[in-house]
Design goal:
single chain; 418 residues; disordered C terminus
Length: 418
């Protein structure tokens, strides 16, 4: 019998790639709090799924705040590195400071003010000469209102600088893995999948800016003569961007879920009814319920339309009052919320172990039960007392502004979904 012919190294590597499961990651939006939750949850997944390389997935899909996290992973930033960079706020060469997101949209304000005299003249003409009702005529002045409060150009410029570091890229076409960042074209309401063929010439930083342009908070982003806003307006996670390519496993993270109030205590807080939280709580619940119902409906279609793909959805427990009542735009609570997301994700994995473990094993992925069940494991070490008290004027201004944004969130949500 002749000895078996040795397989060339190139063939062996091709065979290994063929046997490796095709894995995609889809990250939904949710403002700064959503990004903080996703970082904490990703760190938990990385610890409990050591055989998965979170920087080597086949496809990353990001929407709004999730787009920033997805782009970081595609650029070889590990979940732990993003935690160090954005949660721990350590001195780092990337020098991340979210205060640059708080610059008022002066250019937008100025442009709208220049239109006011012409709009006022048109309104008075319609009322006094053409016989329109006063209210109808004055509605024309609405075009003088700014489309956003904050300047989102800083998002583009600072992320452009972040991805200009050696080993990273701000060009979709130069990434090892496929990255899709979804925005919504304002004038058509259609999804804009930046990163896909025909859309991949746009810089990643500009696509992130467009995908996160929440109407009312940020102005629409102009790209190639068209205007784009937050991708969440169309869908919650846009997972079909990866499912259409026939991936074997899709992992989805969704930070925003409706709250399930009940007489039973869950965690530290007991919330029998959301009415006690007043208008902000009611509007937050309304917004969360709308986007989550779309997500649930979409996942039912996925099970039917893509039966060969296993889908894992990670999201907060709907009884989690601590996460629901946290400031959506909070940066002050980032360590607390990231640790909370880390622990709750591990708890979710433990509860779903009987069904989740066999599903992952079909793809050669094992759960580390030691990391899963180690109740002494934490994402972040407690801060020394002197660091807990240490703040800077910039951070103080940032926290004050974000707290004010939280108070205005219900109004912004109504504008975004009007």
């Amino acid at each position: 019998m002749k000895p078996a012919k040795a397989q060339p190294a190139s063939d062996r590597s091709s065979a290994a790639r063929a046997q490796r499961p095709r894995v995609a990651l889809a990250l939904a939006g949710g403002g700064p709090l959503g990004a903080i939750y996703e970082i904490g949850a990703l760190c938990a997944l990385q610890d409990c799924l050591p055989s998965l390389d979170f920087n080597r997935f086949d496809h990353y899909i990001g929407v709004s705040a999730g787009g920033f996290i997805a782009a970081g992973l595609a650029n070889d930033l590990t979940p732990r590195q993003m935690c160090d960079l954005f949660i721990e706020d350590r001195q780092h060469e990337d020098d991340f400071n979210p205060a640059w997101m708080l610059k008022p949209a002066w250019a937008e304000f100025g442009m709208r003010l220049t239109r006011l005299p012409g709009l006022l003249t048109s309104a008075l003409w319609a009322w006094g000469v053409q016989g329109s009702s006063f209210n109808s005529a004055m509605e024309r002045l609405g075009a003088a209102l700014p489309t956003g409060l904050l300047d989102n150009e800083g998002i583009h410029h600072h992320i452009e600088r972040l991805f200009a570091r050696e080993g990273r890229s701000n060009d979709f076409r130069q990434l090892r893995s496929r990255l899709t960042l979804v925005a919504t074209e304002l004038d058509t309401g259609e999804a804009a999948p930046f990163g896909r063929p025909g859309w991949d010439h746009v810089p990643i930083s500009r696509a992130i800016q467009a995908s996160a342009a929440l109407p009312g908070l940020f102005p629409p982003v102009k790209i190639d003569g068209k205007y784009y806003v937050d991708g969440t307006l169309k869908k919650t996670v846009h997972a079909t961007q990866a499912l259409e390519e026939g991936v074997d496993l899709l992992i989805c993270l969704n930070p925003l879920v409706p709250f399930h109030a009940s007489p039973e205590r869950f965690g530290k807080r007991h919330i029998p009814t959301l009415v006690e939280g007043g208008f902000p709580a009611v509007m937050s619940q309304t917004f969360r319920s709308m986007i989550h119902s779309r997500l649930a409906m979409g996942f039912k279609h996925y099970e039917t339309d893509y039966p060969n793909t296993d889908i894992v959805l990670i999201e907060p427990d709907q009884r989690d009052a601590e996460l629901f009542f946290a400031n959506t735009f909070s940066y002050r609570q980032r360590r607390q919320m990231a640790e909370h997301a880390y622990q709750q994700t591990r708890q979710t994995l433990r509860e779903r172990l009987p069904t989740l473990a066999p599903m992952l094993e079909r793809h050669g992925i094992s759960l580390d039960r030691t990391a899963l069940n180690d109740h002494r494991r934490h994402l972040l070490a407690p801060l020394p007392s002197h660091r807990q008290r240490l703040t800077t004027p910039a951070v103080d201004r940032l926290n004050a502004t974000l707290d004010e944004l939280q108070q205005r969130l219900p109004t912004l949500n109504r504008q975004a979904h009007a």
